[in-house]
Amino acid sequence: MGLSEPAVYRAPVAAGRGARGLARAWRAGRAGARRRLTGPWAVDAAFALGLFMVFWAVSWRPVHDQPVRLLLVQAALVAPLAARRRAPEVAFGCVAAAAFAQWAMDVRTPADAALLVALYTVAAYRDRRLTLAAFLVLEAGIALATVRWSLHERGIATFVSLSGMAVAAAVIGTSMRGRRQQMAFLEDRAVRLERERDQQAQLAVAGERARIAREMHDIVTHNLSVMVALADGAAFAQQRSPERAAVAMRQVSVTGRQAITDMRRFLGVLRADEPDALRHPMPGISQLNALAEQVRAAGLPTRLDVSGEAAAVPAAAQLTVYRLVQEALTNTLKHAPAGARAEVRVDCAGDAVRITVADDGAGTVPPEPGPDRAAGHGLPGMRERAAAYAGRLTAGPLPGGGWQVAALLDLTAPEETP
Question: How much is the pTM?
Fold first, then answer.
């Protein structure tokens, strides 16, 4: 019984799925049949049938001596119109052949107007070359019909009037083709614009995500690196100098609170429904002194030199300068050997800002540009920040030992969102 129960409960599910599949197939079949009934073929067939009935009603006379032949001629002239939009040139050829047979049998009928409908269709759905060929064929037929069925004095007027009808059919069809092509062009353009708009929106979202990730990386990585360095120093000094260990742990607390403050400020800026968050200024060049003090407290002697008119630098560019210096000092704090010293220079020279962050490496051999240092997560973000101001950033070992990061920001270039 235990083994048979799953089969008992599984069968209705499979049956239900099969029933749903059959229902979907039946609905799809009905939809396809509906499309076939209302498609171009069905519409054109109904149009041809209606046209045949009109011509037959106009042509029928009780005393007509050739009703069967007239019926066949009219059917041959009108029937090809059922395929006029699916194969315009074939439909025109069949109508023209039927018209020639009608002329040869000397049967007169107003169903000859099917030639005008066929010519219009060729002009509306095919190129000018085929339209011209169909027009010339129709003109030849008009000339033959005029010679046989018109009186001499009325022949020219008949030829001119019928030719005018042919010209009108060709012109109207060509105009409809141009309008349809214009509509297709506009629809295609709308689709392409919508696709481009979606792509731009995706790029904007990706750029915003990259910017948020960059800010989060700079804030979290720097503060965590400082906290780790302070905690290591406190653990090392705990036995020899409890006072210094206590100072280091207090600095860990201060750094952690600063990280929380920076995170709240950054997240507040992202929230559009909190305009008060925009009133809190983001860090800039004036906060570099506090940044240097924080790094010094973590055990990295740092010298800061800021020259030029820092106040004239736009706030967004100042944030870029701060983040570049912060990331460079964080990398130095993580990768430089013990005893290394760092030097930061920021030169605000009119329309450009030059940034240099270097460490001496305490006279050690320059490190290899491995994945942690040369291809880390921070350096690509630094290059993206510099590229937003049409700047360039270089990072690499110094000949005498140590590491240097140099960047040049062009304040005259329009700011871009990388």
Answer: 0.49
